[in-house]
Amino acid sequence: MVARVCVVGSVNADMTYTVDELPKPGETVLASALATAPGGKGGNQAVAAARAGADVQLVAALGTDASAEQLRNHLLTNGVGLAGVTQVPGPSGSAAIIVDSGAENCIVVAPGANAHLSLSSARIRSVIAGSDVVLIQLEIPAATAATAARIAKEAGALVIVNASPAPRPADRQVLAALADVVVVNETEARDWVNGDGPRQLVITRGAAGARLIADGEQVDVAAPAVEPVDTTGAGDVFAGVLAAHWPDAVATALQRACAAGALATLVHGAGDCAPSAEAVDDILGETKPTRFRSF
After folding, report:
1. How many CA atoms lie within 13 A of 275 on its CB side?
2. Residues 278, 260: Cα–Cα separation, whole Å
3. What superfamily would CATH give domain 4-22+32-285?
4. Other residues' Cβ atoms within 10 Å of the Cβ of residue 285
């Protein structure tokens, strides 16, 4: 079955600086390279889901600057439908990404048009409601994310929230009540495990793979071993592939998401690091199957 996935989120123009070590507070370091590329968590996840084989629509906002057309072309080239993309006056979203020699990174995001994403039009609401899976992350206003989740729930779609950047406690409570699945990294997971627990929590664990906590059960899924060059965007790829395959089977979705996230670390930059479905097939063919407990 080809899943109809709607991604509601951000689109950014990324500037990535490669350095030997991440700068300390007050320190200036020289970059050995600078690359510009499309990005944003929403755009990255939409491309990843499309490359995984899903029928993808993106709900997002672009600005009126030169970056907007470049971002639009990138999404279209990768098979992402733009029926839910609007344009607002001013700059598109942007991000400055610093990557060190060990593939670790730090990121500063300027929301730009993402801060003005509106779901008020009937056309955009129908794009969300017409999907099997709605994937949301939080580089857009939390209230907009919650509205998207409500539209999806009312239409009977599965709601996946990639709760990054971490929301405020009040917003976390709202999203926990609306989401079928919440995806977080290990640092973010503490708030969700000890406080607002969704029905199904997926924790990304970097090279260790991922953990699913559902109905009191815990399942760990390994990731293929790779030598990363840049971890930027790997979490977005994981979320996009997870959404594309969740309607097939949870076990399949987790395993393919872990494999795709690992492959994403072999490519510099975030916007174009998502692997093809064939590349995921290939690396899983070299990996021993993971055993899953039922839940």
Report:
1. 23
2. 10
3. Ribokinase (3.40.1190.20)
4. 7
Residue with tokens 């990324």: 14
> Using alpha carbons only, how large is the chain's radius of gyration in Å?
18
65 backbone dihedrals φ, ψ, rounded to 5°: -95, 180
Half-sphere exposure of 71 (CA within 13 A, CB side): 33
Specify the pairing of strand 181-185 against strand 200-204. parallel
pLDDT over 70 at 124, yes or no = yes
* Catalytic residue check, 236: yes
Give the closest residue to 189 by CA, choosing from 176, 207, 174: 176
pTM above 0.85, yes or no: yes
Q: Which of 10, 15, 93 is nearest to 47 (CA)?
A: 10
DSSP structural state of residue 157: -
Q: Is the peptide bond before 165 cis (omega within 30 degrees of 0)?
A: yes
CA distances from 273 to 43, 214, 239, 276 (A): 12, 29, 13, 10
Which residues have CB under 8 Å from 33's CB, separation 6+? 17, 18
Which residue is catalytic, options 236, 248, 272, 282?
Answer: 236
Q: What share of the chain is helix, strand, coil (3-state, %, to 5)?
A: 35, 25, 35
d(CA 139, CA 124): 18
Report the SS3 class of residue 125. helix
Give dist(CA 25, CA 107) in Å, integer: 14
Q: Give the tens place of pLDDT for each residue, 200-217.
A: 999 999 999 999 999 888
**Structure tokens belonging to residue 230:** 């840049």
Alpha-carbon distance 101 to 134, whole Å?
35
4/224 Cα distance (integer angstroms): 27
